[in-house]
Amino acid sequence: MSRLISATYHPNIEVAEFICEDGRHLLRSGGTLPWRINNPGDLTARMVDGVPAPRKAKGYVGFATTRSGRTFLIFPDEDAGREELKANLKRLHGDRTIPEAIPIYAPKKENDTEKYVRDLLKTSGIPAGRKIGECSDAELEKIVSSIAEIEGFHANAGTRKETWVAVSRINATDGSQPLPGTEIILQRGGKEETVKSDAAGRFPPVIHPADKSAVHVKVADPKSREAVTVGTIEGDVGKDFNLLARFKRWKGVAGSEKINSSTLGQRTPMSYVVQPGDSLWKIAKLYRTSVEAIREANERGHDRIYPGEVLLISGSERRRLGSEAPAPHPTTVTKPPSVSTTASPAALPKRPVVSPAPPPVPTAIGSSDSARSKEGEGKVLALINPVSGRAPWMPIAIAEAKLRRGETELTLQEKINYHIEIDDTVKSMFGRKSAWCAAFVNWCLMRANYPIENKNFPERKIAKARAHGFYEVDGPKKESGKDRKKIRNPLFVELEKPIYGAVAMVTSLSGTGQHVGFVYAKNGSNGLILLGGNQGQQINFSYFNILPVAPFVTKNKKGESVKHKGSPSYLKYFVPIAYYEQAKKDLLDPGIEERSAAEINKAMGIEVAKSADANTTPSLR
Predict the structure, then answer these.
(1) Contact 586, 390 (CB under 8 A)
(2) Do 183 and 149 sit in the same domain of this protein?
């Protein structure tokens, strides 16, 4: 039998849907939930921020969230479910007896714990005083079989039903992003059913009728409100379809090839930029692949991911074949606006704003725009790289930080000089007058196709080398050449609070910018982690105070008083004017996660000589 490689659960119809490596779908209904999802022990998934994130569980191929809101592991077969149940018992309850373990394994709020213990001891025959970790393999098998019986794995056997079917999927999109809550009507024979798309724009799977009849897909005409047929689903092969809802156009898979088929060989991987709040599970679900497949493609032995990282999405489960699936984090691809040199800073937020072009693919990530068919006809076999959503300059900054691995400026400038790259008139990255924090930030923005220089402004080039230049620059010359005044930099808008990817300016009490970096994470109630250059002469992640810190005194281990100077500086936040409309949305969900600088530097492979976790400002010069 072909291997089942992924699975999902449809709680509204109580059906587990498995996808086979040959493209077929197996539907399991009836019986009990443990049987439908091959989970004899009713093992639930560990949840982090509302999404499943199992740390040590193995063998699962998906997650089943029930109507009650609980999320269980789905296994490809009963044996895999039993193996994980045994591993779970040994890993979490090996030092406990059955009477000690069951109140934790099956808590009172969901089970009759006392009865559970009695039944398990009776059916397994294991002595009440024996620890689970001391049981032999044969005894563990008895415990697992008894738990399966108690959890109802074998109940309602007469109602069980397994069906191999062709399944098609429909996604609602406006051509660039998914459309949640879109309604369509599915007509099977003389019956009609109205269904809505979920938060990712996906409709419930459409099962091809066993009698080979067609399923007509209809949408309501916006004027007449009458149902109009926009497409038909039929045949022995499942396909992906996109409903371009705004224009009522219907696009699907060309030809007779199945989705999820493994017969077409290797595919070019696509790159995906991790966004704040992402998890491997969410990404895998979005692309109909598995956490294991993503880990394998990226050579990772863990599930930890960080915003701004670039992951390769490959494997036999990814959507393809010209299905035009919507990018998960869309950005309108438009040339950044030119900025008038006479613009009034106060009026900047009211100006029409468009989003910039997507950033180039970061270092070491190959292009994955398309793959040609065997016939050489140029049919798209892989998705176009999705445009990153939030702060498109961040994957560039992170890729550069990873590439340089904490190298200091003396040797770094022999490979790349950010001053020269952005043409700010400074020739060296070394020395007190050659601070390169602003040059690094501007380089990342420039690589993401954002304007960084105010044309026709005096000292417009050197302004790119100054941290304060993100806030103020020398204004345009008057006709007399005199009365030059500082004005707010019209290329940037100041924000009231930080968001992921914002340019943070370390500001003195006098209001002068001393250093700049990108907002990446938070650390405590008064700390932000900035990704920047010239932080300890490196590109790294470092801690900065959000607000000034007054001098304070602490006690050391010997009980002696230690005086701390505190810090008078604070942070201001800016984004490019072309990003302002997106920034207003980001302010509702800043996307700043709690992390430590040391944790991030270690995860990114950045070697920092001195810990960046201390609440002190790095060497800034």
Answers:
(1) yes
(2) no
